[in-house]
Specification:
Layout lengths: L19 H38 L10 E2 L9 E2 L2 H32 L2 H16 L2 H27 L16 H25 L3 H9 L4 H30 L2 H6 L18 H8 L6 H34 L1
Antiparallel strand pairs: 1-2
Helix pairs in contact: 1-10, 2-3, 2-5, 2-7, 3-5, 4-5, 5-7, 6-7, 7-10, 9-10
GO molecular function: phosphate transmembrane transporter activity
Keywords: Cell membrane, Membrane, Phosphate transport, Transmembrane, Transmembrane helix, Transport
Family: Belongs to the binding-protein-dependent transport system permease family. CysTW subfamily.
């Protein structure tokens, strides 16, 4: 017969009784979550209310019209639409994503599995530093240096790939094109995608990597068979978070693109504009229904960014099930 020593038995608090610290922390976390939802709802309500006057008086189709004649007399009906702005916003963000994602994945893989420890640490700091640079600095770099350096390259694209509508000539002599804006945006979102991809690649179970290597796989084959399948949801989530940043970027795009409202897939000609840049350029001189119309454009950008970020969170959440 054995006896249990009560002195060695762990003592648990009575069932149903919670410590004060747990209660305080739980309520604080719950209140923070509710506060975020309240702020988001408040921003949405503000945009809807402030844009109602212009939308109700608008004589054009708001979603399909490209013209923007909102700064009329308050007694006159405005005519404006966001079709060209939405097109330019999506085009610039998509171009930045196409350029930045493969480069970010390459940098992340090099830091995680190829670079020596000291070099990997240094590159990690540099990537984080890129994320801390203000957007206006990227805009100054783009307008002051990049557009002049890329103009000969644009001419080469037009000469040899002009049969593709994206690169058809004649090109803009100023270099202030959608391609230039997309490259600057790609540099801006590169740190976000790289940092997330790096963290995801480093979390691949060691057993998966060792199993691939023990079967005779090379380092690249191990990455292709074990690392990339595991990290794919995280990379996609990071890319969509970068897309959300590109959609809402203002100053860098406003400094590079020429203010015009056209729908053109050509990347080497001036003319396209984004919602955020259009608001930044037009708001100081907006009067009458113009202010409300710009807020309505901001509402569209808010909806697009919200959908993109919700999609990113959904994809990142799926990674937990995969792992």
């Amino acid at each position: 017969m054995t006896t249990t020593d009560s002195s060695t038995t762990p003592q648990h608090p009575p069932k149903g009784k919670r410590r004060i610290g747990d209660v305080v922390f739980g309520n604080t976390a719950q209140g923070s979550g509710i506060l975020i939802l309240a702020i988001l709802a408040g921003v949405a309500a503000f945009l809807i209310i402030q844009s109602f006057d212009a939308l109700s008086a608008n004589t054009a189709n708001f979603l399909t019209t490209s013209e923007w004649d909102a700064n009329t007399d308050p007694d006159e009906a405005p005519a404006f639409g966001v079709a060209a702005l939405v097109f330019g916003t999506v085009l610039a963000a998509a171009l930045a994503l196409v350029i930045a994602t493969p480069i970010a994945m390459g940098i992340a893989l090099f830091i995680a599995y190829y670079a020596p420890r000291k070099l990997a640490s240094l590159l990690g700091y540099i990537v984080d530093l890129l994320a801390a640079i203000p957007s206006v600095v990227y805009g100054l770099w783009g307008i002051g240096y990049l557009v002049q350096e890329l103009t000969p390259f644009y001419q080469w694209l037009s000469d040899y790939l002009g049969w593709i509508p994206l690169f058809a000539g004649p090109i803009s002599s100023t270099g202030r094109t959608m391609m230039s804006a997309g490259i600057v945006l790609a540099v801006m979102i590169l740190p976000i995608i790289t940092a997330i991809s790096r963290d995801v690649f480093l979390q691949v179970p060691q057993g998966h990597r060792e199993a691939a290597l023990s079967l005779g796989a090379t380092r690249w084959e191990m990455i292709r068979m074990a690392v990339l399948p595991f990290g794919r949801p995280g990379v996609i989530g990071g890319a969509m978070l970068g897309l959300g940043r590109a959609l809402g970027e203002t100053m860098a795009v406003a400094m590079i693109l020429s203010p015009a409202l056209v729908i053109s897939p050509n990347l080497l000609q001036s003319g396209n504009q984004t919602i955020a840049a259009h608001i930044a350029l037009q708001y100081p001189e907006a009067t009458g229904h113009g202010v409300s119309a710009l807020i309505a454009a901001g509402l569209v950008l808010f909806a697009i960014t919200l959908v993109v970020n919700m999609g990113a969170r959904y994809i990142v959440a799926r990674r937990k099930e995969f792992s």
